[in-house]
Amino acid sequence: MRSLVAIIVLAVPLLAQPKRARDLGVPFDGTPGTWNAITDVAGVEVGHTTLIEGDSVRTGVTVIWPRGKQSDDPTFGGWFAQNGNGEMTGTTWLEESGFLAGAVFITNTHSVGVVRDASIAWQVEHKRGPANGAGDDFWSLPVVAETWDGFLNDINGFHVKPAHVFQAMDGAVSGRVAEGNVGGGTGMVCFGFKGGIGTSSRVAGSYRVAALVQCNCGAKRQLRIAGAPVGQELAGPATASIVSPREDMGSIIIVVATDAPLLPTQLKRLARRATLGLGRLGAISGNGSGDIFIAFSTANANAAKPPGPAATVSMLTNDTLNPIFEATVQATEEAIVNALVAAEDMTGVKGHKVTALPHDGLQQVLKKYNRLSN
To answer: Which label site among 9, 137, 295, 304 has the fewest CB atoms less than 10 Å from its CB?
Structure first.
């Protein structure tokens, strides 16, 4: 059996950073945090394992730890399916309990099972137990989401192994987050161009709101950036050597993080707002797309396991949520564009090729529509 080459891309500063959307003059509303990433929410850590081998392995796994890998303290959470042709495990208990216990994982469609099982094995090995402790009554219902990378990746080769999940979990850190062809986003296609992982954040008063996406959705003709019809303007020849007959056969997973004190019902409302950020780019969430979003808050530490029988929690009133909603929409929009800008051309299984969004072409279109900011 041939071995895989695992390239572990961690969320750490790099010597030469790839371009991001703002570097190209793409205008966005709102003020980003220090890293303009989901790690601007204190405590959040991100790790990637990227698998690229030969001409057919183009996949991986991404992990987001809400309170960092050293913490077993669950966060309040909520989720929403804009279109449900996809998978996010663990959401039944998330909906019922209001708590997200442990990390959020993103991978390819046919690796959900191995990632789920490996995440539990990691907890057992590290004597961790976010649900009921690490004793005989330990149980875990991990949140694992997916998008389909079968156009570029040999998805039925089942190349994601438990060791790759462990690598992403152990290697997750705060700081700058790698984007584009990394982690679970390695083999993804978005709006007809090369897709992948993207992230962004916003300052909302004294709080931080951020998004991380694994984008694999939309048709090229739909793509709008800063209101300009970028996809139509850059239509030209097909960006893939073989074009899927069903242009909506994609998905997007969006993870929204905040340090604002929100209850599960409010976080579900936050997850819904990610749809508006996606819609700004022209997506329609087609029948074949799995557009599934999850939101969590790092506030209210120890709410799941108070020292006594009752927990005291804080929350923003519903009347004060509009800035948080707006920040969610803005961060989601920019995260998707960041994924497109960071991604690079890729050739994969059966010689399928997907080209990246051309930076100069994007700038020319934005200039044409008077949307270029520099």
So the answer is: 137
